[in-house]
From TrEMBL:
Record CDD domains: Tetrahydromethanopterin_reductase (cd01097)
Annotated region (Disordered), positions in chain: 339-361
Ranges of residues in domain Luciferase-like: 1-297
Signal peptide range in chain numbering: none
Cited NCBIfam families: LLM_CE1758_fam
Protein name: 5,10-methylene tetrahydromethanopterin reductase
Coiled coil: none
Keyword Oxidoreductase among UniProt keywords: yes
Length: 361
């Protein structure tokens, strides 16, 4: 399995001090968090894509390219690439370029985002969101797999004898995860192509996550890609840890209570009971995360959200120390126990490359 972190890149006031970081501070903090992730032995750093305040990651490839130059083995991913409002030609070329710069340490997660106004900002209609996701991804796949593309669709101008450049590294496109919280059409899309399916797994109860992943697994098998157990599944999650669980609850509570995404709603206790949010000791995080296998079966990628709601950088780096030193080593060991031999490993560039081919890097 791969373990890592994902960021939404929000600029949020710290409720305990009232101070709001500058955009520059927040961007630099995301870089520091990625470097720390590699230092403590995590596998993946993923960034969201937003084009509106209070978020700053409007250019994921710029951020990930900079991080690629300062890391050696960290897989660089997106936690959302807006397949609906980005031109698939631009996605094909930008991420192929990043793939070369990062020596193949790149994949991406396609999604529709959670900001409705982004559609008209980029000349699209939110009512066409699912259709945009389907058509744009169909074109993106062809651009990465065919040297010359003739294409005509509904949402962009036709292409005639078009070649996107650069071509994917070693002729192997970046692995694609389709991310969705609630849309069965996206689970179906992932299954149809034999791609990965990533469930955010933050705001919804376990039964909902189970149904979405089970649908994807069934349809993955239906489309002839393998057994349901061989489907490629990723999960999100959110944790906050201290050595003592009561210290974790006391420290995280003001951040939870004022967070833009769920503040001023259910209590922290109700939210942790009804969703995968885990606030407590490292052992509690281990036990809760291991329970995810009971919900979705053996899976390939686990990402944690650890840096939003105004948490200061120092606190996030402390969280990463706990995650890398006390939590992930146990999770690796325990998830490996009883894992069937036919359950695939998490995709990576080296494993997707045709046998015998070696990257120029």
């Amino acid at each position: 399995m791969q373990f890592g972190i994902f960021t939404v890149g929000d600029v949020t006031p710290d409720p305990t001090t009232g101070r709001t970081p500058t955009e520059r501070e927040r961007i630099k903090a995301m870089v520091a968090i990625a470097l720390k992730a590699e230092e403590v032995g995590l596998d993946v750093f993923a960034t969201g894509e937003h084009h509106n305040p209070p978020f700053v990651p409007s250019s994921p490839t710029t951020l990930l390219g900079y991080i690629a130059a300062r890391t050696e083995r960290l897989i660089l991913s997106t936690s959302t690439t807006l397949i609906t409002t980005n031109d698939p030609v631009k996605i094909a070329e930008d991420y192929a370029m990043l793939q070369h710069l990062a020596d193949g340490r790149v994949d991406l997660m396609l999604g529709r985002g959670n900001t409705g106004p982004v559609y008209p900002w980029f000349g699209q209609d939110i009512r066409q969101g699912i259709n945009l996701a389907k058509e744009n991804y169909a074109l993106l796949r062809r651009l990465w797999r065919e040297d010359v593309v003739d294409w005509e669709g509904t949402f962009r101008t036709p292409l005639q004898a078009f070649t996107s450049t650069p071509r994917p590294l070693d002729g192997v496109p970046p692995f694609v995860w389709h991310g969705s919280i609630r849309s069965p059409e996206i689970a179906e899309q992932a299954a149809f192509y034999g791609d990965g399916f990533f469930h955010n797994n933050i705001f919804w109860p376990a039964d909902h996550t189970r149904r979405m992943v089970q649908l994807y697994r069934r349809r993955f098998a239906h489309h002839g890609h393998g057994t349901p157990e061989q489907a490629i599944v990723g999960l999100g999650g959110q944790v906050f840890m201290r050595k003592n669980s009561q210290d974790a609850l006391r420290e995280f509570r003001p951040y939870f209570d004022n967070a833009p995404v769920y503040g001023h709603g259910p209590s922290l206790e109700d939210f942790t009971e009804q969703t995968p949010l885990t606030v407590g000791s490292p052992q509690q995080v281990i036990e809760r995360t291991l329970s995810f296998r009971e919900t979705v079966g053996d899976y390939q990628r686990q990402l944690f959200l650890m840096d939003h709601a105004g948490l200061p950088l120092k606190t996030v780096l402390e969280q990463l120390d706990l995650l890398g030193e006390e939590v992930v080593p146990v999770l690796r060991r325990e998830f490996a126990k009883g894992r069937p031999a036919d359950v695939p490993q998490a995709p990576a560039h080296a494993s997707l490359r045709p046998l015998g081919e070696v990257s120029a890097a």
